[in-house]
Design a protein that fits this description.
Two copies of one chain form a homodimer. The first copy, chain A, has 259 residues and is an alpha/beta fold. The first copy, chain A, contains seven helices and eleven strands. Chain A has a single domain, classed as Survival protein SurE-like phosphatase/nucleotidase (Stationary-phase Survival Protein Sure Homolog, Chain: A). Helix content of chain A is 26%, strand content 30%. In chain A, helix 1 (25-35) crosses helix 5 (149-165) and helix 2 (82-93) runs parallel beside helix 4 (119-129). The longest helix of chain A is centred in the middle third of the chain and has 17 residues, at 149-165. Chain A is globular and about 50 Å long. The model of chain A is unreliable at 1-5 (pLDDT under 50). The interface between A and B is large, with 72 and 72 residues.
Chain lengths: 259, 259
């Protein structure tokens, strides 16, 4: 694959982040793919930050320390959330604005309702807010030793596409792939789905109640064009997402109502 | 105001949450308004959880303890995030499914880009995901002693509307009000905006770097129908929001592209 070039003929600068933390196998796998396209800088949480959503840190200061990923990629481990990492990288840590943000490879699906809880997706969304084209990449397998080769191949296609074509302002790409070899990438919409939680109530040695939350995903949507359906057919799913949450259809209906 | 009734002629059960924590003046102010319409149950974080976004707690167990708000409202303080509170309340803590979730009154704006970082809005969104009509309420003034009377009046109008008319599945209402008396409530869309962060880099006594994040909101949108514009004209803004983040317009454009 020929290397893409950033502005002024230089190699693209690609910022890599995640929410599983800088020690995760997934971030190394994504950095390897990004490295085929440009210069890689990693800024990622110094520990697991799954399900933090779009949290930002405002009440405590942020710390960073230099870190080598795989004895190969220059990185900084940050005490903050994925969204913090992206803000701090853009404003303080990188020598110039990156040409691309890639976040992942997350260990676990960010399809359907998962994406609103996802730190991986939030890092990419934050990149979009900062004006940088951004992609979130997730693999459905939670196992740290999962075969990420298909997710890497899908990421390679999508990174190539975005470096060549860019993305419209305000739009982030959310890529999910099954573990194992890539069957193909299909555009999809976010499936209507939710978690059905169960709380495992226990009592601690001091006789106080506590709860472990567990849950299973319930699909509320049986059409063929959703991310969850595409994934269940063995393909990687690619969904353009936005952070304008306005429900325009309802807004059109209610605007005449005086409150 | 006549009291609304829930299913089977009983008074509505209204679940009150927030992200500023169960000790905040705002939650008391909202519980007072909710109490005019039905039976109030408060389940809220046991401490400040601003800017946690849609975080959920999966790696540590959740704890709760009974709590009286203002010696008047029965509540439970929860160790988790606002989204956790809503899940736990629905599944474990309430005697029945609530008829309405109200979250707030947040001390600070949740208009424009703020809403994606907001724990207050996430609590309401989580209520919607659970199938309960849900409203987030915020007052623009960060001061704990701010005049919330206008936000209360706006909440009263919107709660009355929702208990009478319901909300479509998947839609949450995001209400913001200036401090002081209410001038009126206007429907609005989420303003395109972002934070321009500044990082105040310092060095600690052990000579290690740390950063305080600060930022100011930049409005990227000068049309009259946005939440931020409505608020700057002195009105409360009411925005229907959704958690389907699919950027349908782009999806329509790219679906033919093979990757």
């Amino acid at each position: 694959m020929s290397e893409s070039t950033g502005a002024k003929g230089r190699k693209p600068l690609i910022l890599v982040c995640n929410d599983d933390g800088i020690f995760s196998p997934g971030i190394k796998a994504l950095a390897e793919v990004a490295d085929e396209f440009g210069d890689v800088e990693i800024v990622a949480p110094d520990r697991q930050q799954s399900a933090v959503g779009h949290a930002v840190t405002i009440n405590v200061p942020l710390r960073t320390r230099a870190f080598q990923v795989d004895n190969r990629f220059h990185g900084q481990a940050c005490s903050g959330t994925p969204a913090d990492c992206i803000k701090l990288a853009h404003h303080e840590l990188l020598r110039q604005k990156p040409d691309l943000v890639v976040s992942g490879i997350n260990h676990g699906s960010n399809a359907g309702i998962n994406l609103i809880y996802s730190g991986t997706v939030s890092a990419a969304t934050e990149g979009t807010i900062m004006g940088t084209p951004s992609i979130a990449v997730s693999c459905l397998d939670f196992d740290e030793e999962a075969d990420l080769s298909g997710a890497q191949d899908a990421a390679r296609k999508v990174i190539g596409y975005v470096l060549n074509h860019g993305l419209p302002p305000g739009v982030t790409l959310n890529l999910n792939a099954p573990a194992g070899p890539l069957k193909g990438v299909k555009w999809a919409r976010q499936a209507n789905s939710r978690y059905v939680e169960e709380f495992d109530g226990r009592r601690d040695p001091a006789n106080r109640d506590y709860y472990w939350m567990t849950g299973r995903l319930e699909l509320l949507d049986d059409s063929e064009d959703t991310d969850i359906k595409v994934l269940s057919n063995g393909y990687a799913s690619l969904t353009p997402i936005q952070y304008d949450l306005t429900a325009y259809r309802l807004l059109g209906e209610v605007e005449g109502i005086e409150l």
